[in-house]
Amino acid sequence: MTKGACLCGTVRYEIDGPFQTMLNCHCSMCRKFHGSAFATALVAPLPGFRWLAGEHAIRTSCASNYRSFCTTCGSAAPLLAPERQLALVHAGNLEGDLGIKPEFHQFVGSKAPWYTITDSLPQFEVWPPPSQAPVVARPTAPPKEGVTQGSCLCGDVAFELDGTPIVMMNCHCSRCRRGRSAAHATNVLVAFDKFRWVRGDAQVATYKVPEARRFGVAFCTRCGGAAPRLSSELGFAVVPAGALDTDPGIRPRAHIFVGSRASWFPITGDLPQFTELPPQI
User: Fold this and answer.
1) What SS3 class is residue 171?
2) What 3-state class would DSSP assign to 6?
3) Model confidence at 212: pLDDT above 90
4) Which residue from 43, 54, 188, 274 could staple onto 278, CB 3.0 to 4.6 Å apart?
5) 3-state SS assignment for residue 221
């Protein structure tokens, strides 16, 4: 039995295994929705899926009928496909050892320019064979010199960053994993005077974990896509890298909070790793 929950705990569910497939998806829509470098999804038989609480708090994304999210904290909610008798769940919201690890990367042709795949899993430009599902292309704005652009999944929320951001980090803490519904968050810190909203900031909701000193997330209330959060506690704008439309010019500096890393996600590559926060950013 595997249990899952959103960041705020309103949406809860359980799944009887075994899981059939686990994959990493790098498509632009998954990156926008989760705000991360990629989404990690699992497929399980639908008869083994049960809601425990919170169905009333789930909203379908305005950008895709195949995506839904908790309206309180923005975490991605499971997708149920009765016609195929399957349930698709997001690994970042699941508890414990799942008994399976990612098997391949898909849509690597849409991979974020700031993320490098360092493991040896098979990679597919779009869908893995024999799938013939349609490919949905999301329009992006033309680049601006010296400006990094970003937006939510539906495009209603847009923002810009001037110059090179302060730092980019991969965070494996349990709150980031639940908040992004992903293997880890990749966040960019930006000085307040280098950040500006272009449109849609009025429809951005923020959720702060009650017992946390500084941790919170922000999301578009219409599509559920990750959005920047202006953190007075940190003194920076915290921008989910998956929401970026153009290359910010920096790359992740380290993996942090690896002491809380998901058991199903092995860290590969040569980036420094810190059990919690590094001594200095």
Assistant:
1) strand
2) coil
3) no
4) 274
5) coil
Q: Is the pTM of this model over 0.85?
A: yes
Query: Taking the domains of the chain in order of start, what are their residue ranges?
Result: 2-110, 147-260
SS3 call for 178: helix
| Nearest alpha-carbon partner for 170 in 162, 158, 159, 182 | 182
The amino acid at residue 145 is E
CA-to-CA separations, 1 to 5, 24, 85, 196, in angstroms, rounded = 14, 22, 18, 45
CATH class as words, domain 2-110 = mainly beta
Distance CA(131)–CA(128), nearest Å, equals: 6
- Residue 5 identity: A
Q: What is the pLDDT of residues 53-88, one digit of tens each?
A: 999 999 999 988 889 999 999 999 999 999 999 999
Distance, in Å, from the CA atom of 34 to the CA atom of 40, rounded to the nearest integer, reads: 10
Distances in whole angstroms, Cα of residue 53 to Cα of each of 57, 181, 221: 9, 18, 21
Exposed (0-12), middle (13-18) or buried (19+): which is 134, by Cβ within 10 Å? Answer: exposed
- Per DSSP (E only), the strands in the chain are 2-5, 12-15, 21-25, 39-45, 49-53, 58-60, 68-70, 79-81, 86-90, 105-106, 147-151, 158-162, 167-171, 185-190, 195-199, 204-208, 216-220, 229-231, 236-240, 255-256
- Cβ atoms within 10 Å of 151's Cβ, excluding its own: 24
Same fold, 2-110 and 147-260: yes
Angle value at C-alpha 219, between 183 and 230, nearest 5 degrees: 100
Extract the tokens encoding 279: 């001594």
Task: Pull the structure tokens for residue 74.
Answer: 């923005």
Q: Give the CATH number of domain 147-260; options: 3.90.1150.10, 2.170.150.70, 3.30.565.10, 3.40.50.10540.
A: 2.170.150.70
